[in-house]
Amino acid sequence: MKAARHLTMVLAAGTALLAGCASAPTAPLPTVPTVDLARYAGAWYEVASLPNRFQKQCVADTQARYRQTGADIEVVNRCRTADGKVDDITGVAKVVPDSGNAKLRVSFFRPFYGDYWILALGGGADYGWVLVGEPTRKFGWVLSRTPQLPPSELDAALARAEALGYDRRAFKTTPQTQPLD
Predict the structure, then answer these.
(1) Does an H or E element contain 156, and which?
(2) Distance CA 131, CA 4 (A)
(3) Mean local confidence (pLDDT), 7-20
(4) CA-to-CA dists, residue 139 to 68, 70, 100, 150, 161, angstroms
(5) Bridge partner residues of 112 (DSSP)
(6) Who's near 117: CB < 8 A, 6+ residues apart?
(7) Given pLDDT bands bounded at 50, 70 and 90, which one contains residue 26?
């Protein structure tokens, strides 16, 4: 009986210890209510992003182009590498149902998909800039229709990122030296 009580206490203490090691739950990440995909389509320039492993070869001129192809969206990402060459990759995005087109699932290596959530849109009716992220807040991008975003608009995008739980200081600006068209 004494051994059973001891085992129960050890298990309870172990459970409490493991629960204390668990990370705090992250608040839900809200998106914009709706996105007009026809207006969203076209060319975008990356002006800031959270550094990530799958873009580590990109040193400048990171750009994306979105084009609707039926129910899907073709995604072409391009950037300049350290040796001056252009690296590109083509993928597909699918709209998450009932998301107002604000949540997409993107794949460059099918069958693996990642979240691409539109967190903020600025710059008027033509979507002059966008803040994109995903629920864990490990990835984030500020994109613009032009190679440079006015400082006040970049500040607005990064302020929104910070309000959503991102570390705004972790965003690094992306040099835009020349279009890759």
Answers:
(1) helix 151-163
(2) 55
(3) 30
(4) 24, 27, 21, 23, 11
(5) 109
(6) 29, 31, 102, 103, 104, 132, 133, 134, 135
(7) low
Nearest-CA neighbor of 127 among 138, 142, 114?
A: 142
Domains of the chain in start order, with CATH, are: 37-166 (2.40.128.20)
* Residue position matching structure tokens 């172990």: 14
- For the cut 80, the answer to whether the pLDDT of residue 60 exceeds it is yes
Secondary structure (3-state) at 20: helix
Helices and strands in the chain, H and E counts: 3, 9
Stretch (H or E) spanning 168: none
pLDDT digits over 110-149, tens only? 899 999 999 999 988 889 999 999 999 999 999 999 999 9
Q: Global pTM?
A: 0.84
As a residue count, the chain comes to 181
105 pLDDT tier (thresholds 50, 70, 90): very high
Contacts of 88 (CB under 8 A, 6+ apart): 76, 77, 78, 79
pLDDT at 178: 85
Integer-rounded Cα Rg, in Å, for the chain is 21
CA torsion, ordered 44, 176, 90, 88, to nearest 10 deg:
170
List the one residue out of 169, 98, 104, 167 whose CA is nearest residue 130: 104
